Amino acid sequence: MFCRKVFPKLQEKNKVILGDDYFDNGGYVVCEGDGRLINPGLFNKRFAQVLKTHNYKKSRLHDARHFFASNMISIGVPIPTVASMLGHASPILTLNTYSHVLDSMHQEAIEKLDADIERAITSKKAKADSEGGEVQ
Description:
By secondary structure, the protein is an all-alpha fold. Helix content is 68%, strand content 0%. Helix 4 crosses helix 5 (91-97). The termini are far apart.
């Protein structure tokens, strides 16, 4: 929400200050102060500087994109929503790219189901024992 709340306010302020010299970039959030799109190479350089300044492991900006997408999927955000946020033309591309996340989610689901079944059996057995009967 930070980017969606703060950057547009800064952009509006810059539009007022720069007037006709402000470049209408079609709604991009991350841009230069005058609205021009940031050169990808320069953006990557700035990203690397931020990581170094804050003692983070050297990483590519694209790695942050994968981190974002993988985490969105793992917390249950619907694939079509993640696809839209990433700018993918189709959720199929998102599924193909991040299927490894779904594999781990499947394993986690199986483990949760196993634990739930075990709890149900244990609970039913404990109830039967307390009532002096047998588990059905």
